[in-house]
Write a structure and sequence with these properties.
38% of the residues lie in helices and 15% in strands. Strands 2-10-9-8-5-3-4 form a 7-stranded mixed β-sheet, sandwiched between helices. It is globular. The termini are far apart. The chain has 2 domains: 246 residues, Aspartate Aminotransferase, domain 2, CATH 3.40.640.10; 125 residues, Aspartate Aminotransferase, domain 1 (Alpha-Beta Complex). The C terminus is likely disordered.
């Protein structure tokens, strides 16, 4: 099919040309004396993205799931008790991973479309007088439902209960795109992956650990080899890794961090919010029984919008037609949301016109499967939002006449008769 695929799943995201060029390089010796300059710079600058001055960053050749595992096995022992709200497929999967490592998970089931219930977490921790609960697992941005939780509120609830539990946060689809404050929120383990806001291919699992989390390693008994923080700490201290890293991914990450620094994190967060609000305006304009999965504005995600289709419609048909007919990749509904919604990912390297193209393709696909969407309604609503909220553009300065060209007729001196 001519043209490029319109990739609007919530990860992997579009990889900027600058990053692709940075990754396109010959292999080199990861044990050379020049390598530490790359590695130490990455580990130092990653702390800016996590917004921490005290945390230690780790880079694993893995994914966000590997980050989940690394965070748990380095700080916990089999039989430890963990508290975890479940409000989407990814919070469910993290719970499953913890259970497979022999952790006892107290699950708070929450309606899908809502976020982490800070008040209930606080109540449970207040009742845990013996401090048997060792950690709280929070998915900051639940990609399956388009819901963002208030991590700051969870931290306040933990503190109000005067509980020492570690705070583990999955920031896979938020870090680098949605405001994340590791130090301010006293997050102990923060996890992300390379294929979302960092705008890289999948292949890196990134974890940032607080001093409190690093201290917990001394008593953690979960088996670990590949994901051992200790091996990483010893090797990273000299600018190397305990095993062969992905050289192209590291150079891509270097370029990604440079791009993020140039735009500025606060500008990135504002851009994602503005783009997301345009998508939500489109959903409202579509009507016809289409609605957001997120139950209230306080849960709205700025990196992915999950759109419920009317009863009797299979959202998988919308996704399939969009892909096969219009070369547009939309996110599918997962687990209990399968067939009930489709997702538009809007994070990473994108702008207004890219999103308008995705909305146009979604409109066409919905009409093709029989949904009563007025052509152009969503695109128009989003375009008007983007137009009305665009930064003002200063008028072009008058350009000086080129001395090599004759003066324009209006500038010529009057000719005497």
């Amino acid at each position: 099919m001519p043209g490029r695929n319109f990739l609007f799943v919530p990860g992997p995201t579009n990889v900027p040309e600058r990053i692709l060029r940075a990754m396109d390089r010959a292999m080199e010796d990861h044990r050379s004396s020049a390598f530490p300059e790359l590695a130490t710079g990455l580990l130092r600058d990653l702390r800016t993205v996590f917004k921490t001055t005290t945390g230690q960053a780790f880079l694993f050749p893995a994914t966000g799931t590997g980050g989940w595992e690394a965070a748990l096995v380095n700080t916990r022992s089999p039989g430890d008790r963990i508290l975890a709200p479940r409000y989407g497929q990814f919070s469910h999967l993290w719970i499953d991973l913890a259970q497979r490592h022999g952790l006892r998970v107290d699950i708070i089931d929450v309606e899908w479309g809502e976020g982490a219930p800070a008040d209930r977490i606080g109540e449970i921790l207040s009742q845990d007088k013996q401090h048997e609960i060792k950690g709280v697992l929070i998915v900051h941005n639940e990609t399956a439902t388009g819901v963002t939780s208030d991590v700051g509120a969870v931290r306040k609830a933990i503190d109000a209960a005067q509980h020492p539990a570690l705070l583990y946060v999955d920031g896979v689809s938020s870090i680098g795109s949605i405001d994340f404050r590791m130090d301010e929120w006293n997050v102990d383990l923060a996890i992300t992956g390379s294929q979302k806001g960092l705008m890289l291919p999948a292949g890196l699992g990134l974890v940032c650990a607080s001093p409190k989390a690093l201290a917990a390693r001394e008593h953690a008994k979960c088996p670990r080899v590949f994901f051992d923080f200790g091996d990483m700490i010893r090797a990273n201290a000299t600018g190397y890794f305990p095993y062969t890293p992905s050289i192209p991914m590291l150079y891509g990450l270097r370029e990604s961090l440079d791009i993020i620094s140039e735009e500025g994190l606060d500008n990135i967060f504002a851009r994602h919010q503005r783009l997301a609000e345009g998508v939500r305006a489109a959903v409202r304009a579509w009507g016809g029984g289409l609605k957001l999965c997120a139950k209230a504005p306080k849960w709205y995600s700025n990196t992915v919008t999950a759109i419920m289709v009317p009863e009797g419609t299979n959202a998988a048909d919308v996704i399939d037609v969009a892909f096969r007919r219009y070369n547009l990749a939309l996110g599918a509904g997962l687990a209990r949301m399968a067939g009930k919604l489709f997702r538009i990912g809007h994070l990473g390297d994108l702008n207004e016109l890219m999103l308008l193209g995705a909305l146009a393709g979604a409109e066409m696909a919905m009409r093709d499967v029989g949904l009563p969407v007025t052509p152009g309604a969503g695109v128009a609503a989003a375009a008007e939002h983007y137009r009305s909220t665009a930064a003002p553009v200063a008028p072009r300065a008058a350009q000086a006449q080129s001395p090599s060209l004759p003066p324009s007729p209006s500038s010529r001196a009057p000719v005497r008769a």
